[in-house]
Every structure is written in structure tokens, then in C-alpha cells.
Specification:
heterodimer, A: extended, B: mainly alpha
Chain lengths: ~150, ~120
């Protein structure tokens, strides 16, 4: 490779950048942990010096407003996640009945109810029902479970 | 489960008018980590639309926060007119730190300040 050729030097530079980008991608969690550690080490200072409690609180009014807005976004995200989870839970429980009625009519739905009643009379029916509820709840709320586990 | 909007809001804190306790507490360390500890090739990944990273939005917000910290520092230095000591008590006039301040010369910042105060 001729090093005096400006084009090849540019190509070499971009190739080196791509290679180091590729290498650095693997460090994502390590770098993020550096910021998490930093935030945790400063958290007690931030808590102790709540800007809204300052004597010159007016000087910090805009910062307080942004912080409150950020917290409200967080709350909204939680609430909508929970609402979607509940909606999915209800639809998983009720959708089979609705679809059966739509496709097979009232007679088919009645036979499905009869089959459910017959199944509930079996000795281990409560275990089946618990397992089913647990599974559907897990499916709906797994993002929250993941959040708390990680 | 932090929302993207929350990250964007927090990243804007150093640009806010008035005083900022968060900026005074966090900015120096964030700037050091972002510019000195973490190689720039990593930030290329964060800023590149095509690159997939697990926590891309959070990292982008961290990068933006650090950039905004640098902007606030420059504005604070300018306002305090290179006074000795720290710039922790500098009051940023409304509407806050100009987002393009890093590209501005001292004369242009001066002009901006006089136009916002009048």
C-alpha cells in the first residue's frame, strides 16, 4: 500500500475507525457501569441538596421544573406499561371465547363453557387454573420482572 | 424501564437558565469520563444510526448531557469573565445556554448576551 496516496490513507483511517468501533462495541455494559457507579456515588449529595429546598430556590426553578417533568415521563411510562399489561392479560383470557363465538356461534361457545365446567370438576383443576393464570401473568408482566431482576 | 423522554429531559438540564445543582455536582465527572476515559470510537457507535447497542438511548442521553455540560461550562466561564475560583455560583440568564455555543466566538457570545438582556 502506498502511504503517499491520500485516498488510501483516508481509506486506511476509516478502516481503523471501523475496527476500533467494532472493538469498543463489546465494552458497552462496562462503560455504562462507569456512569451508574458515578451516579450512585453522587446520589447522596444530590438527595441532601434538593434544589427546591434551597434558600434561593427561585434560581433553581427551571432545573426543578425539568426534573419534575422527567419524573412525570417516568411515571407515565410505568402506568402505560402496566395498563398495556392488564389489557393483554384480559385479552388473553377473553379472546378465545370471543373468537369462538365469532367463528362457531353461540352453540360452539356454549359447548366450550360446558367443557370448562366439566374440566373444573376434575380433582387437579385448581392447579391447572393457577398454572394458566401464573403463565399469562408472567407473559404480560415480564418487562417489569426483568426490570426488578436486572 | 426508563422512558426515552425522561432521558432527553435529563440531558437538557445543563442548558437550563438560572443555577443548576445537578450540573455543579455531576458535570466535571461526566465530562472527564466522556472525553478522557471512554474512547471516541465508542461514541461513534452511539451516534451512528446503523449501529445496534442494547442501551443506545441511555448512552446517547449521557453523551448529550456531557456535551451540554461543556456548553454550560463555556457559558459560565464567559459570564464570570474568567474570574478566579470555581464557577458554581454563576447565574445563567434566560433563555439558558445557547445549544450552539461551542461553535461561537467570544464576540458572538457577547452579542448574544447583550441581545438577550435588552
Amino acid at each position: 500500500m502506498n502511504n503517499n496516496n491520500p485516498l488510501s490513507q483516508t481509506q486506511l483511517g476509516s478502516l481503523q475507525l471501523l475496527a476500533s468501533m467494532e472493538k469498543e462495541r463489546a465494552n458497552e455494559s462496562r462503560y455504562l457501569a462507569l456512569y451508574t457507579d458515578l451516579l450512585q456515588s453522587r446520589l447522596h449529595v444530590l438527595r441532601k441538596n434538593d434544589s427546591s429546598q434551597h434558600t434561593d430556590a427561585n434560581n433553581y426553578a427551571e432545573e426543578t421544573r425539568i426534573l419534575k417533568k422527567a419524573i412525570s415521563h417516568e411515571r407515565k411510562a410505568w402506568a402505560s406499561g402496566l395498563a398495556i399489561g392488564c389489557l393483554v392479560f384480559v385479552s388473553i383470557r377473553k379472546l378465545p371465547f370471543w373468537a369462538t363465538r365469532l367463528v362457531g356461534g353461540k352453540a360452539k361457545l356454549q359447548s366450550m363453557y360446558d367443557a370448562e365446567i366439566a374440566a373444573s370438576k376434575r380433582t387437579n383443576s385448581h392447579l391447572q387454573r393457577m398454572g394458566c393464570t401464573f403463565f399469562t401473568s408472567f407473559l404480560n408482566e415480564y418487562p417489569f420482572i426483568l426490570y426488578f431482576v436486572t | 424501564m426508563q422512558s426515552d423522554e425522561m432521558y432527553d429531559e435529563l440531558a437538557r438540564i445543563p442548558l437550563c437558565p438560572g443555577k443548576s445543582f445537578v450540573s455543579n455536582t455531576m458535570c466535571d465527572d461526566f465530562i472527564n469520563l466522556t472525553t478522557d476515559t471512554i474512547p471516541s470510537a465508542f461514541w461513534h457507535n452511539v451516534l451512528d444510526e446503523k449501529t445496534h447497542l442494547k442501551n443506545k438511548h441511555a448512552l446517547k442521553a449521557i453523551y448529550n448531557f456531557s456535551q451540554n455540560c461543556m456548553k454550560r461550562k463555556k457559558f459560565e466561564r464567559f459570564i464570570s469573565n474568567n474570574k478566579s475560583g470555581d464557577n458554581d455560583d454563576v447565574y445563567i440568564p434566560s433563555p439558558g445556554v445557547p445549544s450552539h455555543i461551542l461553535d461561537l466566538s467570544n464576540d458572538e457570545i457577547e452579542k448574544l448576551l447583550t441581545s438577550s438582556s435588552s
